[in-house]
Write a structure and sequence with these properties.
Helices cover 40% and strands 24% of the residues. It is of the alpha/beta class. It folds into three domains: 3-76, Arc Repressor Mutant, subunit A (Orthogonal Bundle); 83-161 and 261-277, 3-Layer(aba) Sandwich (D-Maltodextrin-Binding Protein, domain 2); 162-257, D-Maltodextrin-Binding Protein, domain 2, CATH 3.40.190.10. The strands form three sheets. Strands 3, 4, 5, 6, 9, 10 and 11 form a seven-stranded mixed β-sheet that branches. The protein is elongated. The protein starts with a helix and ends with a helix. Keywords: DNA-binding, Transcription, Transcription regulation. Pfam families: HTH_1, LysR_substrate. Belongs to the LysR transcriptional regulatory family. This is LysR family transcriptional regulator.
């Protein structure tokens, strides 16, 4: 069985169509379809069903997907077996939105300079989504908010930084936090997100529900909106917040919780971890 055909099948399942998978694999849709037929012939099972332009995996295909993913991972990592540092193969990194701007650029720079043989891919997402992809072995590591529960032994979380919760309002606003809360609408850091959960109780105690404009799991978008004069918010002070000159940050010492950014990973080498966290 040609492992390239397995990669093509995984691309089809992920993309949902032969055409999209073909673009990813740099093939023609006809070549993609031929590879799928070859796999189906070798396995004696139908692996996908077509409905117009869309393609969906069959139950037989879903039952073997975890094994196929592991095969793809092992094949991709063969090159790293000849490199004691573990930096010669692919590294699949996830990052929440703030880490994409705060952390990922320097990570790319270090890998380019110190690990040119590595193939680094970066996937954006929420902490919950990235953690799920780590569990499913679709990612090797991710910058995310520390999970609010005990993680399995297969996942290691390394502390990166603590980000205190602060109030953000438009630059030049001289009002007290109490006055701002009374007079303005709040853009609330999504209370269902791991970071937003940290301030849910404080918000319920201090901000009437009628004064909440919206809930959003995107602190950068919240800060930008506030900078345009749209209300205020209580969000973590990530490093990039200092670069937004359109907003003013106000310390809230009464909120003891901080958002903890961690590097969660599965079995990364010491050298890989060093380049990711430095």
């Amino acid at each position: 069985m040609d492992t390239r055909f397995i990669l093509t099948l995984l691309a089809v399942v992920d993309a949902g169509s032969f055409a999209s998978a073909a673009r990813r694999e740099n093939l023609t849709p006809a070549a993609v379809a031929q590879r799928i037929r070859s796999l189906e012939s070798a396995l004696g099972k139908q692996l996908v069903v077509r409905s117009g332009q869309q393609v969906a995996p069959t139950q037989d295909c879903l039952s073997i997907l975890p094994r196929l993913k592991k095969i793809a991972i092992n094949v991709a990592q063969i090159a790293s077996d000849f490199d004691d540092t573990g930096l010669a193969g692919p590294i699949r990194l996830g990052a929440i939105s703030t880490a994409l701007s705060d952390r990922v650029p320097s990570v790319l720079s270090r890998f380019a300079a110190q690990a040119p043989a590595a193939t680094l891919s970066v996937t954006p997402g929420t902490s919950k989504d990235l953690y799920a992809r780590l569990l499913d072995e679709e990612l090797d590591a991710a910058f995310l908010v520390r999970p609010p529960f005990k993680t399995p032994k297969s996942i290691t979380c390394i502390h990166i930084e603590s980000q205190p919760m602060v109030m953000v309002t438009q630059a030049g606003d001289s009002r007290s936090p109490e006055a701002i809360i009374r007079q303005e609408k709040a853009l609330v850091y999504d209370p269902t997100s791991w970071g937003g959960q940290l301030v849910t109780d404080w918000i319920k105690a201090h901000i009437p529900h009628s004064k909440i404009l919206c809930e959003l799991d995107a602190v950068e978008a919240i800060a930008i909106a506030v900078g345009h004069g749209i209300g205020y918010s209580i969000i973590p002070a990530w490093a990039g917040l200092d670069d937004l000159v359109s907003v003013k940050r106000v310390a809230l010492p009464q909120i003891a919780q901080s958002r903890e950014l961690v590097l969660a990973h599965r079995r990364l080498t010491t050298e890989s971890i060093r380049l990711l966290r430095s």
